[in-house]
Design goal:
- The protein has about 450 residues and is an all-alpha fold.
- The chain folds into two domains: about 40 residues, no CATH class; about 375 residues, Up-down Bundle (Growth Hormone, Chain: A), CATH 1.20.1250.
- Helix content is about 75%, strand content about 0%.
- Strands 1-2 form a two-stranded antiparallel ribbon.
- Helix 3 packs antiparallel against helix 10 and helix 12 runs antiparallel to helix 15.
- It is globular, with a radius of gyration of 22 Å.
Length: about 450
């Protein structure tokens, strides 16, 4: 094993050749060189002294903050100005999100096993570059085919590595006991954008144009997210002689043991598919997938239809994001305290009530009041879906299981934004669809309750 003495810099040179020969580019092996730089130059910058797993959570948070916002909060801010400027219908604009969701699912099914085998580093880096270029390209579109190519296909492919399989696989590999907290922090990226950046991007759009919004986000993705993904993200802690959750190896008389309860039974994708629990959870997430994507994409247009000005509507949208920020630690606590099974059941019930309250709101003040609890509840969507599969089936094959389940959940998430837009273009309001979404959430709660963790 490696020699690691904090007070002696020589310990960063005299490490085992079996480890260092893989990193022949410098005098230090990769692991010890990083530790040396941290101690000598970055000792006061806490992020780089954290356990690598938490650094990966930070990058994953940033991936949702930047790329995850493109097809959720930023789209909600830009859809009305794009509709006015380009003359396209709301259905034609929202259709790109449907295409992106199908592309994400299909591509995820193909590459899920690669993320299990090789880790998320390369996939997240390439996805950030592709996603950034696609978002910048959206600033120059003039035809619908360009719009669907860039937002539907380009951004859709990048979502696999930046929102779904990439960060979920990486975090599941680096955490077991603290997995709920790790996923809670990761899933908060999109919500923080909603609260902190929606007013800023709304002002940017009012002062310039919707094209500046796409370009700004794309530049951030290339300049900030891609380098950090390459520098920080790694496959699993065992590759560095570490354990999940940064657990310590305790020597015993005849062997080594861990101070963490980090042993878990792993299921292959084929074994997981044979369980009733997987299908019940998938059906439940299908039912909650409709409102999860449908309401957020149509919220600002819904507010403007209800008589709110554009600036007031984006402020209410930010208030929704504020609720979603609190939703991450709330659902992380619920899943950590009572287990993901109870957390998902409670989530389905709460979702139904929150959508009902939102739909029944009949005044601007009531709409503002209804956005916060709706955001609080929807904050559990990314958190619980990401945590369910490693908690139910282990971390070894979580990438391939994620890829398979995303493919099944995709039709609901893809149709979620499109159905309200189509109904609005047909009858002039969203109420029937939102009412149906509340009903599907209550039904989902029953399926979550029946989907008890499988036993092998």
């Amino acid at each position: 094993m490696e020699r690691r003495a904090r007070g002696n810099n020589d310990s960063f040179i005299n490490c085992d050749k079996a480890i260092c020969h893989k990193h022949n580019r410098s005098r230090h092996c990769h692991y010890h060189f990083r530790e040396y730089i941290n101690l000598r130059y970055l000792r006061y910058f806490n992020f780089f002294s954290l356990y690598r797993g938490w650094q990966i959570v930070g990058v994953s948070f940033l991936s949702l903050f930047i790329h995850g916002a493109a097809t959720s909060y930023l789209f909600g801010v830009l859809v009305v100005p794009m509709e006015d400027d380009l003359g396209w219908s709301r259905t034609e604009l929202v259709l790109a999100l449907t295409i992106a969701t199908f592309v994400t699912a299909g591509f995820g099914m193909l590459v899920g096993g690669l993320f299990d085998k090789h880790g998320a580093r390369v996939g997240m880096t390439l996805s950030a570059l592709l996603g950034g270029l696609s978002l910048i390209g959206l600033a120059f579109i003039g035809a619908q085919w360009q719009y669907y190519l860039l937002l539907g296909i380009g951004v859709g492919i990048a979502r696999t590595g930046l929102e779904n399989i990439g960060p979920r696989t990486a975090i599941a590999n680096w955490f077991i006991r603290r997995r709920a907290a790790a996923f809670a922090w990761f899933s908060g990226g999109r919500a923080v954008f909603g609260f902190a950046m929606v007013p800023i991007f709304a002002l940017l759009v009012e002062q310039t144009s919707w094209r500046a919004g796409w370009a700004t986000l794309g530049v951030l993705e290339i300049v900030l997210l891609a380098p950090l993904a390459w520098i920080i993200v790694r496959r699993k802690p065992e590759d560095f002689g570490l354990l999940p959750d940064n657990a310590q190896i305790i020597p015993t008389k005849n062997s080594f043991s861990s101070d963490a309860s980090d042993t878990e039974i792993s299921w292959t994708r084929k074994e997981a598919i044979r369980t009733k629990s997987l299908w019940l959870v998938v059906i439940a997430f299908v039912l909650t997938g409709f409102p999860a994507t449908g309401i957020i994409a149509n919220m600002v247009p819904y507010f403007t239809d209800e008589g709110l000005s554009y600036s007031t509507a984006t402020t209410a949208f930010a208030f929704y994001g504020f609720g979603a920020i609190f939703g991450r630690p709330f659902w992380g606590f619920i899943a950590g305290k009572f287990g993901v099974h109870i957390g998902m059941t409670f989530y389905g019930l709460a979702y139904g009530f929150a959508i009902s309250f939102f739909t029944l709101a009949s005044s601007p003040i009531a709409l503002f009041a209804a956005t916060w609890p709706l955001g609080l509840v929807i904050g559990g969507s990314q958190q619980l879906q990401a945590q369910a599969w490693p908690d139910y089936f282990g971390r070894k094959h979580v990438g391939s299981i994620n890829g398979f389940t995303i493919l099944l959940i995709t039709p609901a998430m893809a149709a979620g934004p499109l159905i309200p837009a189509a109904v609005h273009d047909s009858i002039g309001n969203y109420i029937p669809v939102f009412t149906a979404y509340a009903i599907t959430s209550f039904i989902a709660a029953a399926f979550f309750f029946l989907a008890k963790p499988p036993k092998k």
